[in-house]
Design a protein that fits this description.
Structural class: alpha/beta
Oligomer: single chain
Strand content: 15-25%
Number of helices: 9
Distance between the termini: 50 Å
CATH topology: Protocatechuate 4,5-dioxygenase, Chain B
Number of domains: 1
Number of strands: 12
Helix content: 25-40%
Shape: globular
CATH architecture: 3-Layer(aba) Sandwich
Low-confidence stretches: none
């Protein structure tokens, strides 16, 4: 069987982020220009939220700004996020040759796909990716920050943390590979409750405790897998940003039913939580 030759087309362009290239580029520039990034090494892994940019874009930008020094270094992104529309067992890759966004195309790393498909918990599932926003919304930020990269995109369903960690270990690579987990935090609590829950979740992440539940983060499963790897490999975590949808202008200051957003980085060095 040859490599697939059809693209995965945008599903949420014009909904979660600007659908026209110039408007999208302007939107991304504004988010990134507002970041005062600390002087840190290039992260090996990131956890980034995936809501509409007007809500989570400022938080996401805090993570992506750290990639500026690695614009040419990072050439492969292993991207994992939860499934919101299709229930599945294990981790699903798309049957596609590339992902398309308004900023252009991103090739899928077919060699990495072939390697991952040797694991029993990994399969191909086109439907799991067709309308899923969690992975798609990360791509315009990556296209802005990196010169050229290939993608290994996993939609993560029901899986044990060890099953996710096994996939990450297989594709860990070196400085050319970034591990990226797409996840929001708590959903639809009052502001005070959400902040308390999200702070506890942040504490678990910073302690590298792979015990998150889906009430804490929709991407709890891939996060737990990353935390297992991070603990075994001695990665140092750092909180970059913690907020919720009530903090955004688009949210109108509504504090009655908010969604939490957190950005975290993991370093192969001594740099950890400040």
């Amino acid at each position: 069987m040859g490599a697939p030759n059809h693209p995965r087309l945008p599903a949420v362009a014009g909904l979660f982020y600007e659908g026209q290239p110039q408007a999208l580029e302007r939107e991304l520039r504004e988010f990134l220009a507002a970041v005062q990034a600390p002087v840190l090494p290039v992260p090996k892994a990131l956890i980034v939220p995936h809501a509409g940019y007007v809500y989570s874009g400022p938080s996401a930008a805090q993570a992506y700004a750290l990639l500026a020094p690695a614009r040419k270094q990072i050439r492969r992104v292993v991207l994992l996020g939860p499934t919101h529309r299709v229930a599945l067992r294990g981790l699903a890759l798309p049957d596609a040759s590339e992902f398309i966004t308004p900023l252009g195309s991103v090739d899928i790393d077919q060699d990495a796909v072939a390697a991952a498909l040797t694991l029993p918990q990994v399969s191909e599932n086109r439907l799991a990716h067709a309308q899923e926003h969690a992975l798609e919304v990360q791509l315009p930020f990556l296209q802005t920050m990196l010169e050229h990269f290939t993608l290994v995109p996993f939609a993560v369903g029901a899986a044990a943390p060890e099953e996710v960690a096994e996939v990450l270990d297989l594709l860990w690579g070196g400085p050319e590979t970034l591990i990226l987990i797409s996840s929001d935090l708590s959903h639809f609590h009052r502001d005070a409750t959400a902040r308390e829950l999200d702070r506890a979740t942040s504490d678990d992440i910073l302690a590298l405790e792979p015990r998150l539940e889906h009430e804490q983060a929709c991407g709890a499963t891939p996060i737990n897998g990353l935390l297992l790897c991070a603990r075994r490999r001695g990665l140092a975590p750092r909180l970059l940003d913690l907020r919720n949808s009530g903090d955004s202008v688009a949210g109108g200051g509504d504090r009655s039913r908010v969604v939490g957003y957190g950005a975290f980085a993991f370093f192969e060095s001594e740099y950890g939580q400040a």
